[in-house]
Specification:
Helices cover 21% and strands 24% of the residues. By secondary structure, the protein is α/β, with parallel strands linked by helices.
Length: 608
């Protein structure tokens, strides 16, 4: 079998009529096949007997006739229509916009991203850039995790001791003033994005306890002060602008974090008294009333009841996911797998960078935030017909009918990367992979899988199921492919043999590789029989729990691509991966041009 990489072509509501909001623009018909998220209904041409669109919240009808767009919908829906047409403008140049009718609506009420600024402070301008990207891809929630053990990062004028430098154990003195908080909330609201602030309690409160000198949150003083902080938070934005407050309640494990139920009830009452809905993590402590449960881990429904919920489970925590793995997540993990349709409120991407950072941009670089926003917009908007846990970390064989979903999603993602996000200043670490074809054998030569169409391959993954390739190899595996080149070329390559989570991942797979190693298990890579040497690691052989040592070059997509040579004709690629006892058993290889922040495919290569 041969495949050749080819760049994507060119790569219930009252409705009121809206005025035309753009003039004639350049376009071509293929642009309709490159929109993200993919609209629910597209009709090429404009029928004379248009029926009114379905009256769903956020629904819209976009009509383009002779290059001129117009939209109908509620306020939210018209905003989404504008976002759709903004994409068409960039996708379609240099031809004319085709006449079309797009009728679209979100399946889920809430679609968002959570950014953890409690552990690592992020600049306000960076946060605004994330919010702008969310709005462009029809998300409507920014979940802002503001407090954690490392710092209470929202200014309190009632309890200014929370901003004492000695109360922070990371980035001392870095916090958001109340004016900055209001600025972000207003910025988001202008773009149709609701900020859900989180004050995490009673777990993750070391910074609070250090600042106040209250060692045990069971102390009634803690109950009162945290209640006052909830009131102060709610005073910063009206309920119609900030309708939900998140109180965390997860992982209350440490000494001093055990509180009576009466404390939780009191804190919940303060949220409700301020006219807000209450949200908390599940698994987590019991919150009273009809709070929104926020699912965060596991293969089962942790709610224990029929309360409405938002899903952030498993691979939606992208701090555990590598960029090339995002495609299988976006294609095959169904948001909201349990309960009635009324209970399924939507999904939120989790960006938990537990480890210290050297630069504020590292959070979006090392967690592939922008590729995730683009790819997951589709399943968060449309849902998936079926949840496929066995495919969370692998793509199906190209002869499997399910493969087309991933191939189509990748094609749309590349069009977005190359056209809509052309010149984008933030990292977008993703390259095409569905054209690749790998064979996996065990040490004896027994074939375990063929035609594997991905750049990052997991013989075993820590998500369920534990083995990505049943029946699951139990020794060394070998990955092989052939790449034919039209000419002799020197180029870059993404090569990775260890998949470190950005949440204490090195502590789970310590020590990190030593100099001269690709990973601690002795993995190797050869091109035409010649071994490719590993990088000269900045932090080789680190053991224990090194989360205060910032990640620098440990994973393939945030270090410079390896330098490789491909001869004219066939090139044999071989990765040897001894059994890995860590979190992930992983091998990554794909040629790339450009930088790791802004990579592109290498043209003229054929994969066999």
């Amino acid at each position: 079998m041969q495949t050749k990489y080819l760049p994507s072509r060119g790569a219930g509501i009252g409705f009121a009529a809206l005025a035309v909001f753009a003039s004639a623009l350049s376009c071509h018909a293929d642009c309709l096949d490159e929109l993200m998220p993919r609209p629910m209904e597209i009709v090429r041409g404009v029928p004379s007997d248009l029926m009114p669109p379905a009256q769903r919240p956020g629904a819209y009808r976009l009509v383009v006739r002779n290059g001129r767009p117009s939209a109908t919908g509620d306020e939210e829906g018209v905003r989404y229509a504008k976002a759709t047409f903004a994409q068409l403008r960039k996708l379609a140049a240099p031809d004319a916009v085709p006449d079309c009718v797009i009728t679209d609506w979100p399946r889920f009420k809430y679609r968002g991203l959570m950014l953890d600024c409690g552990r690592n402070y992020q600049r306000v301008d960076s946060i605004k850039d994330v919010i702008s990207a969310l709005a462009a891809y029809k998300y409507n929630v920014f979940h802002w995790h503001l407090t954690d053990n490392y710092g209470w990062r929202l200014e309190s004028k009632k309890h200014p001791e929370l901003q004492k430098r000695e109360a922070f154990s990371r980035q001392p003195g870095k916090f958001y003033t109340q004016a900055e908080f209001k600025e972000v909330v207003a910025f988001a609201r202008e773009r149709g994005v609701t900020v859900i602030p989180e004050l995490d309690m009673p777990g993750h409160t070391l910074a609070f306890r250090k600042a106040t000198g209250i060692a045990d949150l069971a102390d009634d003083r803690a109950r009162i002060i945290l209640g006052e902080l909830i009131d102060e938070l709610c005073s910063l934005a009206p309920s119609e602008t900030m309708p939900i407050v998140h109180l965390g309640t997860d992982e209350a494990r440490e000494k001093g974090e055990k509180v009576p139920q009466s404390h939780l009830d009191y804190w919940a009452s303060r949220v409700l008294a301020n006219g807000r809905k209450l949200m908390g993590w599940s698994p987590g402590l019991r919150l009273p009333g009809q709070s929104i449960k926020h699912l965060w881990m596991g293969a089962r429904d942790p709610r224990g009841d029929s309360t409405p919920y938002i899903d952030s489970q498993n691979s939606f925590y992208i701090n555990h996911v590598d960029p090339e793995e995002l495609l299988s997540v976006a294609a095959y993990q169904q948001p909201c797998r349990w309960g009635s349709e009324e209970e399924k409120l939507g999904a939120i991407i989790g960006v938990w960078h537990d480890d210290a950072i050297a630069d504020t941009e590292d959070v979006v670089r090392m967690n592939a935030v922008y590729p995730a926003i683009v790819m997951l917009s589709d399943s968060f908007w449309r849902g998936r017909e079926k949840d496929e846990p066995a495919l969370y970390a692998r793509l199906p064989s190209p002869d499997d009918p399910r493969f087309e979903l991933a191939a189509d999603l990748e094609r749309r993602t590349l069009a977005q990367r190359d056209k809509v996000l052309k010149g984008f200043r933030h990292p977008f670490p993703y390259v095409a992979q569905t054209h690749m074809r790998w064979r996996m054998t065990d040490a004896s030569g027994k074939v375990l899988a063929t035609d594997i169409p991905q750049a990052t391959i997991y013989p075993r993954h820590f998500w369920f199921p534990a083995s990505a390739y049943a029946p699951g190899p139990n020794g060394t595996v070998v990955l092989e492919t052939t790449i034919s080149s039209e000419r002799d070329i020197d180029c870059g390559a993404w090569i990775g043999m260890t998949g470190f989570s950005r949440s204490d991942g090195r502590s789970r797979d310590a020590p990190t590789p030593r100099l001269g190693q690709w990973n601690k298990h002795g993995a190797t890579i050869e091109i035409n029989g010649v071994a490719i040497p590993p990088p000269k690691w900045t932090h080789p052989g680190v053991g224990g729990n090194p989360k205060e040592i910032p990640l620098v070059d440990e994973d393939y997509w945030y270090r410079p691509p390896a330098k490789i040579h491909l001869k004219r004709g066939a090139n044999h690629i071989k990765l040897t991966l001894p059994k890995n006892g860590g979190w992930k058993w992983i091998g990554t290889f794909t040629p790339v041009s450009g930088t790791s922040d802004h990579p592109r495919e290498v043209p003229g290569l054929t994969y066999e």
